[in-house]
Amino acid sequence: MTLTDNPVADAIETAAPGTVLSHLHPAGSFDVADHELPTGREEIWRFTPLKRLRGLHADATFQPSATSCTWNTPESVRVEGVDGDEARALRGVSGLVPNTRFTARVLAEVPSTLLVDVPADLQVSEPVVVDLAGEDATVTEAGHVVLRFGRHSQAVVVLNHTGHSSMVQVVEVVVGEGAQVSVISLQDWADDSVHLTHHQATVGRDASYKHVAISFGGDLVRMDSNVAYDGPGGAAELLGLYFADAGQHIEHRLFADHTAPRTKSNVVYKGALQGQGAHTVWVGNVLIRKVAEGIETYEENRNLVLTDGCQADSVPNLEIETGEIEGAGHASATGRFDDEQLFYLRARGIDEAEARRLVVHGFFNDLIRKIGVPSLQEKLMDTVEQELAKNVLRDTL
Question: InterPro entries from the entry (predicted)?
Answer without folding.
Answer: Fe-S_cluster_assembly_SufBD (IPR055346), SUF_FeS_clus_asmbl_SufBD_core (IPR000825), SUF_FeS_clus_asmbl_SufBD_sf (IPR037284), SUF_FeS_clus_asmbl_SufD (IPR011542)
